Amino acid sequence: MNYAPKPTILRWLQVGRREGASHMLLVADALADETMPVYVSPGDNLAYKIRRFEGTHSMQIIAVFDLLSDLEQQLDFVYP
């Protein structure tokens, strides 16, 4: 599985923050061999969005980012 590079993920985090999302799920799709962002709006149910990916054979949540907190610190934790 090829994960998106750190600068790409930082850009996705910044876009999500700018668009007003509260969280971003970093999701790996094994069938497509790609990583993608899934944004969560403030009114959305975060737990429900996370459950949508649990138990799927091809998709896995790599990380959940809080877009209201320090983005680079969170990214450094996931991508040391």
Write the layout of secondary structure elements.
Layout: H1 6-19, E1 23-29, E2 34-40, H2 46-51, E3 59-66, H3 71-78
Antiparallel strand pairs: 1-2, 1-3
Give me the strand/helix succession. HEEHEH
| Overall residue-averaged pLDDT value | 91
Strand order of the largest sheet: 2-1-3
Helix fraction, binned, reads 25-40%
> In terms of per-residue confidence, which ranges show pLDDT below 50 for 5 or more consecutive residues?
none
- Bin the strand percentage: 25-35%
**Structural class given helices, strands, pairing?**
alpha+beta
The total strand number stands at: 3
Radius of gyration: 12 Å
Largest sheet geometry: 3 strands, antiparallel
General description of the model:
The mean pLDDT is 91. The radius of gyration is 12 Å and the shape is globular. The relative contact order is 0.24. Strand 1 (23-29) and strand 2 form a beta hairpin. The chain has helices spanning 6-19, 46-51, 71-78, and strands spanning 23-29, 34-40, 59-66. By secondary structure, it is an alpha+beta fold. A 3-stranded antiparallel β-sheet has the order 2-1-3. It has 3 helices and 3 strands; from the N terminus they run H-E-E-H-E-H. The longest helix has 14 residues, at 6-19. The chain has one domain.
